[in-house]
Amino acid sequence: MSNKSRKRILVIGVVSSSLINFRGSLLKELVVSGHDVHVAANELDQDIRSKKKLLEIGVSTHNVSMSRTGVNPFIDLYTLANLIRLYLKLRPNIVLSYTTKPVIWGGLAALFFPSTKFFALITGLGYAFTESVSGKRLLLKNILQLLYKIGLSHASGVIFQNPDDKNEFLEMKLVSRNTKIKVVNGSGVNLDDFPVAPFPKAKINFLMIARLLGDKGVREYIDAGRILNNQGIKAEFNLVGPRDTNPDGLTDDEIKSWQNMDWLQWHGTSKDVRSHYEKNFVYVLPSYREGTPRTVLEAMATGRPVITTDTPGCRETVISELNGFLVPIKNSKELASSMKKFIDNPELAQRMGKESRAIAEKKYDVNKVNKEMINAMELD
Q1: Domain assignment present for 154
Q2: How many CB atoms lie within 10 A of CB 363?
Q3: In the β-sheet with 205-209, what is the strand arrangement from edge to edge?
Q4: DSSP string computed for 23-55
Q5: Are 42 and 86 within one domain?
Q6: Which structural domain range is residue 312 located in?
């Protein structure tokens, strides 16, 4: 690669581990292509494991003070100042930001650097956009809309992970129709890292992996288990994921109540999600809204059928009755009914699991998605 075509690229996230878990393959591809790649996230230096992996890839790392949740003008302005300083230090040719705060504050910082091309990756609309809102959530939504509109006003491109989010941004006029827009199939999944796994020899069981948030559908998942067990249908439910400080996080009392449910196992945070896919038959994500749920893609790659909601980001992953089932949001009865189909007919999991893997190979292979991302960033 000539010096002229070699670019200095800065990728900004909030959670340092997401740079490896969600962007690792893309970062590696950019480094292999000869670009000077830098990443920034909150408390990255403290995340020794992620920093080590990033350095092994050949990426330079930087700390940026940034909170994932909440709206505190003093903290957020400090984040903006940090990003401006980082832009001044690096003078990147291209910036790619993903998730809400990096997109907003990364976009605002880019306004001071007209020669820098800023690309925003919208990975979902989050807490404030998941349903009809009022009160504090409505106020937060209005603030976010204004900030998105300003932050994206001079973006060189905006990348979405599903068509619903794209259409909503256009309808709300958060992004100009003249802006270069692209829809990609989520973050993709590394098919080698998540090979097809044989089903366990135990009875049909279910798995959900998510932060303990109401909007992820955790309550509906628990309710569906309660419905089945109250009907005398003994089914094992596994839940993997950490507590969350988001306003929509489950309360301590809710979590304590699970101790009396012998059919439910909460495993907390896991560093090896692959083992959980391997130990379960059916993957379930009753989320209210997603960009494209990475856990669903991983489960599909592993050869697992999926039950998820007929909602933005989720509905793209399942062809109902082919590789799983789509259910309405906030509907525990329909969710339990779909689960019961696998209990009544265990062979369904085998058939639908094969279809899941086929869809993952055709649509969600990370190598295919990365090519689309590189094209969207005008690097091919």
Answers
A1: yes
A2: 17
A3: 264-266, 236-240, 205-209, 282-285, 306-309, 324-327
A4: THHHHHHHHHTT-EEEEEEETTTT-HHHHHHHH
A5: yes
A6: 205-363
Task: List pLDDT tens digits, range 44-60.
Answer: 999 999 999 999 999 99
Q: Beta 282-285 vs 306-309: how paired, if at all?
A: parallel
pLDDT digits (tens, 9 = 90+) for 140-160: 788 889 999 999 999 999 999
Q: In sequence order, what are the residues at sequence separation of 6 or more whose Cβ sits closer than 8 angstroms to the Cβ of residue 92?
A: 8, 9, 10, 38, 116
Q: What pLDDT was estimated at residue 247?
A: 80
pLDDT at 129: 66
Q: Considering Cα of 163, then 167, then 170, then 172, what sign does the dihedral take?
A: negative
Query: What secondary structure, in 3-state letters, does 155-200 show?
Result: CCEEEECCHHHHHHHHHCCCCCCCCCEEECCCCCECCCCCCCCCCC
Name the token pair of 318: 């399942």
Residue 138: its pLDDT value, please? Answer: 77
Same domain, 243 and 305: yes
Q: Which residues contact 23 (CB under 8 A, 6 or more apart)?
A: 11, 13, 39, 98, 187
d(CA 46, CA 64): 12
The answer to whether 8 touches 38, Cβ cutoff 8 Å, is yes
Q: What residue type is 85 in one-letter code?
A: R
Domain total in the chain? 2
* Residue 200 within a domain: no
In the chain, the amino acid numbered 96 is L
- Give Cα separations from 187 to 197, 364, 371 (angstroms): 21, 8, 11
Residue 221 and residue 182 share a domain: no
Going from the C-alpha of 215 to that of each of 106, 221, 222, 307, the distances in angstroms are 26, 11, 13, 16
Question: At 287, which CATH number?
Answer: 3.40.50.2000
Structure confidence by residue, pLDDT tens digits, 198-220: 999 889 999 999 999 999 999 99
Residues contacting residue 221 through CB under 8 Å, at least 6 positions apart: 208, 237, 239, 284, 286, 335
Does the model's pTM come out above 0.85? yes
Two structure tokens written together for 297 = 């893609």
Q: Are residues 324 and 369 located together in one domain of the fold?
A: no
